[in-house]
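User: I'm putting together a teaching handout on how multi-component assemblies are represented. Below are the sequence lines for each component of a complex, exactly as they appear in our records. Could you produce the 3D structure of the whole assembly as structure tokens, so the students can see both representations side by side? Please keep the chain order the same as the input.
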Amino acid sequence: MIFGFPIVLFIQRAILQGTALLFGSTGEILTEKSGNLNLGIPGIMYIGGISGVIGGFLYQSSAGRTVNPVLAIIIPLLSSLLGSLLASLLYCFLTVTLRANQNVTGLALTTFGVGFGNFFGGSLIKLVDSEVPSIALTKIAKVFKKTLPFADDLGWFGDIFLSYGFMVYLAIILAVVASIFLKKTRTGLYLRAVGENPATADAAGINVSKYKYLSTCIGGMIAGLGGLYYVMDYTNGVWSNNGFGDRGWLAIALVIFATWKPSVGIVGSYLFGALYVLYNYISVSMPMMPIIQMLPYVVTIIVLIITSMRNKKENQPPASLGLSYFREER
Amino acid sequence: MSENIDRVNETEAAVQDVKPDGHKDQKKREPLFHITKRGQLPLIQAIGIRAAAIVLALIVGGIVSVFVTGKNPIDIYASIFDGAFGNGDRAWVTLQEIAVLLGISLAVTPAFRMRFWNTGAEGQVLIGCLATAACMFWIGGSVPEWLLIVIMLGASIIAGILWGVLPAVFKAFWGTNETLFTLMMNYVAIQLVESFLKIADKSGSNTVGPTILVHGWVPNLFGVQYLLNIVIVAALCVLMYIYLKKTKQGYEISVVGESENTARYVGINVKKVIIRTMAISGAICGLIGFLLVGATSHSIDADLVGGRGFTAIMVSWLAKFNPVIMVLTSFLLVFLDLGAGEMSSALGLNKSYGEILTGIILFFIIGCEFFVQYKINVNKNHKFFVKKGEKEVLE
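Assistant: Of course. Below is the structure of the complete assembly, with chains in the same order as your input.
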């Protein structure tokens, strides 16, 4: 407590809230670096979440009283990855192979994904004729939320840095790896070339379609983990329809805020998370609360405007963002 | 004769030996097909491809339905139809929904023709709703009803223009990415509405309804509840068609959409066109917001537009930005949405099943555009088609 403000708790909540956004934005940055503006990310995050829930639900109902901690993580994780992979493949097939409009395809995917999540979230119990009253994967969530054993002994340091489930750290690791990949590796350079100018990349012998497919699928899978994290860790394994809310769009906002840099995304996600939960911790009148929740979007708009005005090369969106590439077209 | 043939074979073998190493591989690597852009496809064929896609989508949707729900797909589609047109009242609701969706689609279309990807129609309509509701709440009662309605109309249109022009100005002068800017503006509008809800209704309810917004109800046309919206949107549809196809401004929009450089070269003020067009888009969105609150629901909540700002993008794109065809595409999407909602409650499914079906159908329609625009030329000489015996002869 500092001046009566529960600072440790606040930071904890901000990090917990920001982690789902961090997965989403890291995935979307990788995707956008290939020139694909995947507006289906909010849908993919729903699909990733519900796929993990389906896998986990089937496992938990078959496992009986005790769950094997390894399987309890592996099964939801793999089914989540599979779900978001299939959704991303669909997006790639339509936009890369069939050269469809990316905005329209992405929005359709979001419609589909949110519907998919809510449908299975609402009907899973009925579909498998289960006896349980609601989807509560508490046993699995406990495994997901397991913290380091000595975290509690370290006071505020442990609370702020060590008191989370493994997915919080996974999100940071993925963002760092993505950052190094984009900046330091040859493949990352090729990927950026594809996003900046696919025709030039193609002429240089880079397989444009392959890069677009791979980065969009891997990006989608990472984003899908954000959905999985939200259900398994943030909400303790309880799925509620539309509970994920607008976090998918917030993740897309975060991409702009981070000016397409995954490492900046780490800080940005916790900042957005802090703004998201801030109204719980300060005394404001009721009508002011939504205004505070509006801040991440306003800040994003300001960043977008400033970067376009300053026109610095390294802060711009990939030049071919949103455009399909067709070799024979000039 | 046989001697001759032998000799020919010998020379061929010799020639093959001389050929550079890669040649044989290259022949193998020749692609199975290549893709070329079509010229203008005859209308019948173009419609045929799209119809085939819809039929295919319905079949796939049916298979998925059986797989997921165990229900008969014909039952599902029958109840979709029943849900959209079951009786007179439902047909009116369907028409009203079409009018709203078509109105928003018309609003986004001029910007799309100029390749300005306005993903912010949701927010532009919602801010129009908010302006209307705010006028009803604060000014209602202190001015005559007719004046209030005029003020509501003006306020909603100005609010819509503001939400549309802001991203356009930055796009025109600094090239700020409009897709992302307009997208973010949606959530600013949503949170502003949330804030208004908390001011107007202290109980913390999520909706401010007709018990609070008692003033400024736009009278029904001929006593029919939804007729006014339908008439206004129908008129808009005709006007928009004329504007885009027959006026100088409409032509300028097309030129900017084809190529900004060309437009600049022929002396079109691109910045002016971008801002003017988005002002028109925003104004129509604001008007729709006015109709939604002032003439239809007399209530406001953050989900009043309900994603129709995004659906409108698909409606407009599916119709190739043609206002007349948009009547059909908005009909299709509203039909699916309402029908699926009704169906899911009739068959005891979760309401979201309709969104899954809509998604499947959209994917097919989106995918089929490829076959309308491009032609796949199959390479008949590819080894895939050549039987083994013939292959040896060829070699």
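A couple of points students might notice: Residues 49 and 371 of chain B are 7 Å apart (CA to CA). Residues 145-174 of chain B form the longest helix (30 residues).
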